Amino acid sequence: MNNRRRNFRPRQQKNNFIRRRNGSSNSNSYSGNGNINFNRNGSMNNSHNVEKAMQKFQQLAKDAQSNGDPVQAQNYLQHADHYLRRLNELIEKKEHFSEKSKINEKTSPEENTLENKSSQSNN
Q: Which tens digit of pLDDT belongs to each residue from 21-66?
């Protein structure tokens, strides 16, 4: 038998999944400069999930403070602050959308078609 040690040989890739490259059809991934690759599944767009994450980090900060670790507590508070800002963005976007839909409901479909016809005849 040969007692020599073998050189490392990487395993072959298993083809259990589809690997997407440049022609990615995944609309959730963003790779603008190559260094950033976000793959969000919509969890940051759900205000309930964002609020839960914020509360989780606030609780972790309290626990770290009570354990005598002010550095870790500050770290968790910064994370909680991030999620608070994100929650405020989502609430603002939701309010803006609801205001926009109320304005659209006030104008009747007949008025919209009359406006479209008059703008087309002017062009």
A: 655 455 454 444 444 444 455 677 888 999 999 999 999 999 999 9
Cα–Cα distance for residue pair 115/122, rounded to 1 Å:
11
| Reported pTM | 0.51
| Domain ranges across the chain | 46-122
Beta bridge partners of 29: 39
DSSP letters spanning 50-101:
HHHHHHHHHHHHHHHHHTT-HHHHHHHHHHHHHHHHHHHHHHHHHHHHHHHH
Phi, psi of 22 (to 5 degrees): -50, -40
- Count of H helices and E strands in the chain? 3, 2
